[in-house]
Amino acid sequence: MSADTSLPVLTQKDFASDQEIRWCPRCGDYSILAQMKKVLPTLGIPRENIVFVSGIGCSSRFPYYMSTYGMHSIHGRAPAIATGLKVARPELTVFVITGDGDALSIGGNHLMHALRRNVDLKIVMFNNQIYGLTKGQYSPTSPLGKKTKSTPFGSVDRPLNPLSIAISAGATFVARSADVDIKHLTSVLERAANHKGSAFVEVYQDCNVFNSGAFEFATKKDQKEENCIYLEHGKPLIYGKARDKGVRIDGAGNPDIVTLSDVKEDDLLFHDETIDDPTHAFRLAQMRWPDSPEPMGVFRAIERPTYDGEVDRQYKDCIASQGSGDLDKLFNSGDTWEVKAKS
Amino acid sequence: MSSESRESSEQETAESETPVESQAASKELQTVESVVIRFCGDSGDGMQLAGTQFTNVSAVFGNDVSTLPDFPAEIRAPAGSLFGVSGFQLCFSSGDIYTPGDEVDTLVAMNPAALKTNLADLKRGGTLIVNEDAFDKSNLGKAHYDSNPLDDESELAAYRVHKVPMTRLTRDAVEGLGLSVREADRCKNFFALGLVYWLYERDSKPTEEWVKSKFGKYPSVLEANLRALKAGYNFGFSTEQFTVHYEVPAAQLQPGKYRKVTGNEAVAMGLVTAAKLADTELFYGGYPITPASDILHELSKLKRFGVRTFQAEDEIAAITSVVGAAFGGALAVTASSGPGIALKGEGIGLGVIMELPMVIVDVQRGGPSTGLPTKTEQSDLFLTYFGRNGDCPMPLIAARSPADCFAMAQEAVRIAVEFMTPVFLLTDGYIANGAEPWKIPEVDGLYRVKVRHPKESNGNGDGFQPYLRDENLVRPWAIPGTPGLEHRLGGLEKSDGSGNVSYDPDNHQLMTQIRSQKLEKIAESIPDQEVDGPESGDLLVISWGGTYGAVKSACAASRRQGKSVAHCHLQYIHPFPKNLGEILSRYKKVLIPELNSGQLWIIIRAHFLVDAVSMSKVKGKPFLIGELCSKIDELLED
After folding, report:
1. What is the distance between the alpha carbons of residues B39 and B109, in angstroms, rounded to a whole number?
2. pLDDT tens, residue by residue, A303-321
3. Please, what is the average pLDDT of chain B?
4. Cβ–Cβ below 8 Å for A337 and B61
5. Is residue B530 part of a domain?
6. Residue B572 forms beta bridges with which residues?
7. Cβ-Cβ contacts under 8 Å, B307 against chain A
8. What residues of A are in contact with residue B312 (Cβ under 8 Å)?
9. Residue A8 has what pLDDT?
10. Cα dihedral A326, A327, A328, A334 sign
């Protein structure tokens, strides 16, 4: 074989569009964009087969800054748009870029249904716990008591737990990372991109203008290792700068923080992404800082048939078993009758 | 017929013991041109089925047919209640017909509530067939009858009344099959159908075949329905209660092969046809809603034609999935009714600004809000014409009859693809559920929509320009998967040519104009408006959508009386046909009858500054030919 059929090697730069980026300086979105551009060349997918679909919000400007196909759509609807695209064109790789307001407030219904159907979409939700584009109202993930422009006396809304929602909806891949935790974010995005089925990734993202420092516990070098548990498949839940603390399950089935010197490693909770039953992942998702150390990484990664794949299979099965549709036969089906010309 | 003759026929029934053969020979067969029948009963009585079967056998026989199913929104309303009455009216004829008829010739009423709610539509002298077994104290009470109307001579004196103990006779007929009383009673619609088959000389074979295919797995139910059908037929044949029966000869339809279609079936077939002939895939995203759901049902069966259907989580997901599929290059379609169309507004606007081909079918029903889900209306014209934020013009076409839905669905696809725009196709509950004969077309004679997805960049080295337009202002439909044409679309205003986000004031003015000018370009591609009747004269009647048949018939009736009345039926509402303004100027008066409060009337007045008169009816029912004729007369007298 003389002809070179291998794909051209793409680099980060090949995925940058010619548009000037208009996020605020030091916005966490820049880092997420940069990590995404790093991940895409590793996938071996031609640029023209990748589509980014977003809704409305700061994060949803993302597709304009990519050189792939893209759509900056309307508020909350990106998962539904992406579902239509993926069902019509199952061979494409489709990412959804969304935010906490877009995905969980106005678009909560679409997110839930995309996940339960297991449409093969990579959904990356930038969670900054604030409405940034509309200049600072509280969001469905803002903590109770949060003072914002629309809650001057503190929010009385209880926040949603995005990962619990995703796991409950039946998502087959659920993960969390943080904008400036570059290596971790890159690895999580890469895992999500390679997952077959709905992948839901929550990325803690700093809105330095309206909600600065909300995620310092998970991003500050001197804090994150004390506050976060970095999940590894098949490994026990151990954390702390000195890796001296761990999590085990107590008699009532609740996570219990222990000091490693007091317990055997085998008695700790071991992480398994592949359990079909969502209980383990859900339990991890319920562990939230500051009440407990907070897990980061891949919570759940299981295999299930995808919606678009099944639609495609039925479609092909019908053609295989019934033959490609014949209009003449269709028109002439049912009770027909002949009207003869008058002699 | 006088009340005396009714009495005597009842007595004869009670005494009828004479051999069948001699009786049948004595029965008179009259030939009539056109008959209107209405079956009515509880919503669980199987009246829709009886009506559909009668329609099928009449269509197969060669009559022209037109139907009006009329059922409550409640699936199983309390038995015997007035609001639970379900009816199916059909007209079958040896001549051309365009409506299911104004007045009913034969009314089949299965219980007192059905009689009470439908008797007013039976013409004087018409035939009334009632299931007298259902006229017990309980049912009479539920229908708010103080006494049994069947016992009151004056109440029914104007009609030929046939009291038939259908419940008892049906039970007798199915005896020995091991059916429960409840199961046996469910066969009485077939008894009624059999009786009416005899009355109108129908061949029951197609119905027998249908029963065999439907109940093949349940031999006793199959046998029971066949027996009930036969018992009904024989009852008419053998008892002296019925002295006359009728035949309606086959219609002189255009030679060719026909089948019966409902509007929703025809929409589905039209969409599949357009996609297949364009050699492309059809994506349908829909959410269940009355009366549009049948389009989803039909299309989901037709996957072999390259159809992918998606039952979305809500109306918004349905329309936005269509946006996504259109971006991906599919022929993307959704259908809904008023409440769903209201929810889809923002998604449709996204399709307009991104200039993607999409078809949105609105099967209109009574509104506002949930309104009258199972009743017809034309009141979504404003919603579809104007109902989006911003200046957001969209082509709007409307089907005029069940069979016309086939052509108009293809036309909607043509406009969408050739002009890169979302298109509204309006139908309504009346034509969606109504049926008529459809002349089966030759596939070769149908229009092939040309789908073009560019492969090469148009940017002269500057990268792909998604909003670079051709002479019709149409931008290229480049789709993901095409190397070198990567581009981003969005709901933000974009720069003409490059498609990049633009807040430039002059660009927004330009883009708004372009979106509007596209409609003018579409006007160049649609046929001139035709006029039925004199080219100029006293009165022009303008109609649109499902009122076509009634208005056409009324105008023709007026012309037969020597009146100068022309009819213009609009299938294109936005844009209007180019010659419409000129047509309007040729008549002294213009009448616009609509099943809304005058929506087209306002648009026509605004557009052409013509002093048109509105005729409005919003009762959830189609126009009667008679009421249109009266309005025409009234205008001509002024």
Report:
1. 6
2. 999 999 999 999 999 999 9
3. 93
4. yes
5. no
6. B397
7. 315
8. 80, 83, 113
9. 72
10. positive
- Give the per-residue pLDDT at B11: 37
Decide if B325 contacts A87 (C-beta within 8 A). Answer: yes
Backbone Cα Rg of chain B: 27
Please indicate whether, in this complex, the C-beta atoms of B310 and A335 are within 8 angstroms of each other.
no
- C-alpha closest to that of B240 among B30, B32, B4, B11: B11
pLDDT in the model for residue B328: 98
User: Does a structural domain hold residue B515?
Assistant: no
- Please list every residue in chain B whose beta carbon sits closer than 8 Å to the beta carbon of residue A110: 313, 316-317, 320
The CATH T-level fold of domain A12-234+273-314 is Rossmann fold (3.40.50)
Helix, strand, coil percentages, rounded to 5, for chain B = 40, 20, 35
| Token couple for B309 | 């259907």
How many whole angstroms separate alpha carbon B616 and alpha carbon B623? Answer: 10
Which candidate, A234, A245, A343, places its Cα nearest to that of A297? A234
Nearest to B541 by CA among B560, B524, B556: B556
Output the domain CATH number for residue B319.
Answer: 3.40.50.970
Give the mutation candidate from A45, A67, A331 for the B interface (greatest B CB count, under 10 A): A331
In a shared domain, residues B227 and B362: no
Within a 10 A sphere around the Cβ of A212, how many other Cβ atoms?
A: 12
Range of the domain at B564: 537-637
Least trusted range by pLDDT, from A218-227, B19-28, B46-55, B613-622 = B19-28
Read off φ and ψ for residue B85, nearest 5 degrees.
Answer: -75, 130
B213 and B66 co-located in one domain: yes
* DSSP letter assigned to residue B31: E
Domain coordinates in residue numbering, chain A: 12-234+273-314, 236-270
- This complex has an ipTM of 0.96
Pure H helices in B301-363: 315-327, 338-354
β-pair type (A69-72, A50-54): parallel
- Contact between B71 and B621 (Cβ < 8 Å): no
The token pair at B142 is: 């539920």
For the segment B182-204, the average pLDDT, to the nearest whole number, is 95
Question: How far, rounded to the nearest angstrom, does the alpha carbon of residue A201 sit from its chain's CA centroid?
Answer: 3
Per-residue pLDDT tens for A285-308? Answer: 999 999 999 999 999 999 999 999
- Among A73, A333, A335, whose Cβ lies nearest the Cβ of B491? A73
Domain end residue (candidates: B445, B463, B490) = B445
| pLDDT at res. B370 | 96
